[in-house]
Amino acid sequence: MTARLSSAQVDRAAGVLLGVACGDALGAPYEFGLPLGPDVPVAMKGGGSMGWKPGEWTDDSSMAIAIAEVTATGADVTTVAARDRIAARWAEWATNAKDVGVQTRTVLSAATHAARSRGETAPTGEDLTSAAAEHDAVTGHSGGNGSLMRTAPVALAYLHDPDALVLAAQEISAMTHHDSEAGEACALWCLAIRQAVLHGTLDVRSGLEHLSEDRARIWAARLDKAEASQPSDFEQNGWVVEALQGAWSAITITAEATGPAHLRLALEAAVRGGRDTDTVAAIAGSLVGGLYGASAVPAQWRRELRGWPGLRARDLIRIGVLTARGGESDSAGWPATATMDYSKFLGSNALTQHPHDDHVWIGGVDALDNLPDGVDALVSLCRLGSTQVPAPGVDPRDHVEVWLLDESEPEKNPNLDFVLTDAVAAVEALRAEGRTVLLHCVQAQSRTPAVAALYGARLSGSTPTDALADILEVLPKARPNSGFRAALDRL
User: Fold this and answer.
1) Is 252 helix (H, G, I), strand (E, B) or coil?
2) How many CB atoms lie within 10 A of CB 479?
């Protein structure tokens, strides 16, 4: 049985893989490019050397997902069976992948050949580990960044056992990267992610105690250098050491910001460092995503995210949370359930048009079963099951899910002001694209009126408090909780 996680810790766990993919997709268009100046915009625009779609992740996220698919079942990845499943999944992915790192492709190819020589179609974990050791023996080097970029799921799988985390991180790294420094980097970064998820603090040095005295001294000096440098100073960021330094540099030079602003600035700084932009940003994303949570990731990015094997942002949240919870959903069945059952909630059939925009409907969760005429986009403020998203007839990109709990305590919604304004921005973006939007939560009593009031204030030029009065005219049973009302006063 997995130790219980608080709502804030679950949010932070959900942000880890989401952060990986955001950094990855943000950096993909700029891969192999020179460093960018501080004023050059960085956007999740697609393109680049591989012709990526906007929001499409690369091998960094895909290899992490293959690990997370296994850890999401609660499996211990130090077991032979779990490593075999990961090995087979990597081989399956690589068959049609646009982009596979040179070292990883070499090892996968050799391991697959070994399997086929035995009459088997998929390599085992041992095939990979042996092939990686042979590659190191032949070439004399195997310290690329390819194991660090994918290591984040290991942190989530061993949140409550740091010693097992170190072992697992090093063993999964060695499946393609025999170099012990790659294993050390994976262990250090996973321990930092663990620290971020459990305690909401940023501390890469917390893992140095798990290294020998000599190795800890070397890595401490490397971290010192990262903190005194710019990401662009690490010109060999295809090497695992400089990839970690580049990611840590991007995080530390932007640390005057906090919360969602820090997350965005850190990933942009990682991309501006140039060269292996997607990988350095993916590494940075795993840590700042774990520090600030899924609720800190802007809807603008989450709408675009996509990639192998046909997943989107909500799927990354699902497998990340399941991994952190040892393969278990919560008492309501989230995040694995097909349908969230809200049938016992009174007032879930509330539905009306927004008083300031008749192309925005506001209501309860029942509207998902029978969308109002013309609705072709949704902003959902409550948790939904896999068969409920996207709603019938709605493109996945146009069904935006928002991480927002109907709780008044600040610790339950640590990024509340950002989440509320970001939800409004999502409605505005959909409307600018010509969509008719359904904005809903379960009963339209607290979350929906709060966001609707902010949206109304933007349209009318009034204060959110005044706009809320207009919302209450059409949703008379609405009663935003005290935390939301305080946020409306602030905003």
Assistant:
1) helix
2) 14
